[in-house]
Amino acid sequence: MTDNDQSRKSILRRDFLRLSATLAGATAAGSLLSCAATEPSSPAARDQLLEQVRSTRLNYSRARAVPTICFGCTTHCGVIGWVEDGRVKLIEGNPLDPNSQGTICSKANGLISATEYPERLLYPMRRVGPRGSGRWKRISWDEALGEIADRLRPLRENGTPERFVFQYGRDKTKGFSKRFTDAFGTPNRLNRRSICSSSRRAPLMSFYGRDFEWESQDVENTQYVLNFGGNPMEAYQGGMFMRKRLMDAKVDRGAKLVTFEVRPTATASVSDEYFAVNPASDGAIALAMAHVIVREGLEDRDFWDRWSTWDFAEMSAHVASFTPEWAESESGIPAATIERLAKEFGAAAPACCTMSNRGSAKHYNGMQADRAIRMLDVLVGNVGKPGGFCLSTLRGWNNRYGQDGLPVLSQPAPKPASPSPWKPGTRQFETLAPEIQERVRNFPQMWQDKYFGELATPSEYPLSWHWYSMRVGQLVYPYIKEGRHKVDLYMSYTLGAAYGMPEANLAREVLADESLIPFHVAIDINYGEQASLADIVLPDATALERWDAHSNNNYGLRPYTGIRQPLVEPLGEARPAQIIWRDLARLIGGGMEQHFDFEDLEDYYREWYKNLPIDWETFKRDGIWYDDKRPLDYELYDRAVLPEHLVGAETDPDTGVLYQTKGGKRKAVGIMQDGRAVQGFPTPTRRIAVYDPIFPLAADHVGLSLDDGNASPIPTYHKVPEHKNLGVDDYILTTFKWNVHTQGRSAYWKHAAEIVHTNHAMMAPETAVRLGVVTGDEIDITTYRPKGVAYRANESDPVGTVRNRVRIIPGMHPRVIAQAHHAGHWEHGVVARGGDTAPSGGSSGMAANTPGRDELSRQIWWSKERGGTGGGVAINHVYPINAAPLVGGQSWFDNVCTVSRVDAV
Amino acid sequence: MSDPTRYAPRPAPYEAVGKRAPLAPDRPGFLVDLRRCIGCHACSVACKTVHEVELGSFPLRVRWLPDPGGDTYSFVPVFSESLCTDDAESLAVGMEPACARACPTDALVFGDFAAAGSLLGLAELESDIRRLAGPDATDLKQEVVYRALPEWVGAKLNQGAALDPKDEDPIYEQR
């Protein structure tokens, strides 16, 4: 331990003790907890509290203000941390960030709760009892990394590197972990994108190309937003970037926001109109709106003909059958309303845009729903226009589409080569089951060149890896259980699968089974349910203690980059993940180490950013860089093809597409429009693929009937199979995120938990009447398997039953039961467990700050001990694994369930 | 018409410290513009973090109040008359209080009602402004005025006791 570590630890400890003393005194004087959440009950209590508040304040003149990048959710806003006495005391927005515009949400300050959490992981630990028993001993880094390296090295030396399986939940190292897995030689760098956003990314990439897995609506200048199930005011990747822009547009310029949802979210509440729609009917509404726009002649015919891959007459004929009256029967929204909204949207064009997210996309029919929604933008020609549906590049700066003229930023050399695909004839190919070999043999060449086995590139879901590797994370554990892939060492990184995956009990069953997972290393900042099922646990540095490169699509429509930098030293013996992987690579050796030839992470990131036109110290001081003279990303498609792309380029006389051949590879680089060579969109046709043959092609290769809506090359609507014949007692069980939480990773942040610490079963008043329940009553919710093409589809046994309490919420759709998915932890320490201090696996052997934990525990006014609700109910085991065809996105919101009242004893 | 000062770039905090005059308004106050509030709790959590307020006490609390007879919610930041201090440390270095700095939508703005042309001064002239409590009525050092406050919310706020979180907030769990 360094001196720095030591002094920092003692500072923290001193603060905890001082706080304890103050509070103990206050309580003795009479009153702090008794008046919790309201006013202090006596002047003495108030004075005591004020004294305590004043004595611990931040002194801005003494403190350092250091910019960094928030990690409170996936939005990643530029922030500034105030650092005093070795602690971060406040986080606020960095006004230089052109995307967040200096705004934050409540989660930014959650990083402080996480960093100072008394039960945080501080030392490497090795289990001493059976896996999952919660018995641990502290070990040294040398011992921990030595054992892991000794287990990994033979896999590499014996030519079976794929038996090392790495899976992450939240990896924002911009490819550093891939550097490790590539250098090792395993293609199995898995994630959980399928339970998040793959089914809303695929439609976008189909339309606009691989470079646009996320859009950047110009809400700052819009007049009209049609929002299908997005909740940017609470939880939405990029939502933070839209909040101020959208509210300003609404309040200052009268822009209109219309929201389709199943429950009254914050976004629904600030909308001009909110409609509670039948679940999974968004696509029907969008197609009916297209019908109205075409019927009324509100389309931008020139834009459509110029840029769409689909013939206008064919499209018109297709949408003719999707009438508003038909959509009313599907969605419950009156035909006249659909018609009115479609006309309003068309009239506002091009300063109008659609918005969608999980609400529309996480269904069996969600991919086509999002394609239908996206088609509305193409139809009215708002794409790339001020106030319209804009695109701004998202990924690292490597001269990709829309990044012309920017400095190239990239990981320092030498980067390792990626593993080779598992082509017929390779050793790995021979490990596949015969039916999988057969499927892969029949794949077109473009897919054979990208196939890396069933975990990384599941052959039944080719569109999960056609554009890029989105994986199908919820099927990893079932596949391991079925023996589709043999694992020797499994490393999970910031992953909460044991708590948060659908059918989380299956994840736990596989993680606990040493015959399936012989060795499990968990790297995380806190001891969660996933770590509890590991053999070795390694403590990661928090976002306030680490470096990362950052770039994101900018809703301000100008590429920018930022740097996450440490504000404080890692607490205890925690280490940044990059250092963990570097040291492991050196111990494994065999050439791996050459890719990790750096001593100091700052040197590594300085090299990464060496092409920036500002010096490193200025970049660190500002935290953000962008070229403020650069034109905004409007109508990128209409810009001239770059001169270097015209060298030797040839035009296809039939399509107008310009091709350049480089190194034997022929690539579309632009398209001729009105005699000009313009860039078009980064799709194979350089147009918007509203008609995309990739869907029937994929369906054909996996045996999916072409009658299934997922196989359609054109946007269409197909009802979720299990929703077709709902019984009168059937409901749809959904799940959602609160604005103060971030998936299963924030329940231990004290201020977030204080605001939301439970997850009651929410239902509409009329639903409660039907069920004969009132708020506070207990119910059992039983879920059933899907009926489409899906994992264990049509099995009649229930998936599971969860007991929860009712909360009546006016404005909910009467067919929907909704439970937030953050609560009900049994690990992650005393705050996440709602004050439950009963011995749990996590407590023993932890390097916990015991006084800090006891003090925090004493403040948890919502604990059951104090008559509160406690920390909620674990619910994720009752949501069936339900990967939609082709893309594999989890259909989180399709679950048919029954509800029964638990009669009082 | 929107206030042009809203779009003036905010100085980076690290530039402000030591370089800007302390904020010493003649009539300090908060303008809470409910047309802009999204109920996100950023203000409340920033306040509790920087002042290290223990759990259970809220100098500033964001309420989600169900619209009567409606399907959605109104969001209302409510100051505690007793626990809100004036965040003198921020004012001393020329910055707004931490809660206002944390607001992502400019729903919570600190300023000087007396300053000519200021956002607060201009807002005071609007017809939809309501003052719930002034320096004489409470211990708050600042005035707090609400813009676009629904009648029914105003009635609740003026009743004080009706804001007891136990039964008023249907979404966020309360003790």
From TrEMBL, chain A:
<feature type="domain" description="4Fe-4S Mo/W bis-MGD-type">
    <location>
        <begin position="63"/>
        <end position="119"/>
    </location>
</feature>
<keyword id="KW-0500">Molybdenum</keyword>
<protein>
    <recommendedName>
        <fullName>4Fe-4S Mo/W bis-MGD-type domain-containing protein</fullName>
    </recommendedName>
</protein>
<keyword id="KW-0004">4Fe-4S</keyword>
<dbReference type="InterPro" id="IPR006656">
    <property type="entry name" value="Mopterin_OxRdtase"/>
</dbReference>
<dbReference type="InterPro" id="IPR009010">
    <property type="entry name" value="Asp_de-COase-like_dom_sf"/>
</dbReference>
<dbReference type="InterPro" id="IPR006963">
    <property type="entry name" value="Mopterin_OxRdtase_4Fe-4S_dom"/>
</dbReference>
<dbReference type="InterPro" id="IPR006311">
    <property type="entry name" value="TAT_signal"/>
</dbReference>
<feature type="region of interest" description="Disordered">
    <location>
        <begin position="831"/>
        <end position="854"/>
    </location>
</feature>
<dbReference type="InterPro" id="IPR050612">
    <property type="entry name" value="Prok_Mopterin_Oxidored"/>
</dbReference>
<dbReference type="Pfam" id="PF04879">
    <property type="entry name" value="Molybdop_Fe4S4"/>
</dbReference>
<keyword id="KW-0479">Metal-binding</keyword>
<keyword id="KW-0411">Iron-sulfur</keyword>
<keyword id="KW-0560">Oxidoreductase</keyword>
<dbReference type="Pfam" id="PF00384">
    <property type="entry name" value="Molybdopterin"/>
</dbReference>
<keyword id="KW-0732">Signal</keyword>
<keyword id="KW-0408">Iron</keyword>
UniProtKB/TrEMBL annotation, chain B:
<protein>
    <recommendedName>
        <fullName>4Fe-4S ferredoxin-type domain-containing protein</fullName>
    </recommendedName>
</protein>
<keyword id="KW-0677">Repeat</keyword>
<keyword id="KW-0004">4Fe-4S</keyword>
<keyword id="KW-0411">Iron-sulfur</keyword>
<feature type="domain" description="4Fe-4S ferredoxin-type">
    <location>
        <begin position="28"/>
        <end position="58"/>
    </location>
</feature>
<keyword id="KW-0479">Metal-binding</keyword>
<dbReference type="InterPro" id="IPR051555">
    <property type="entry name" value="FDH_Electron_Transfer_Unit"/>
</dbReference>
<keyword id="KW-0408">Iron</keyword>
<dbReference type="InterPro" id="IPR017896">
    <property type="entry name" value="4Fe4S_Fe-S-bd"/>
</dbReference>
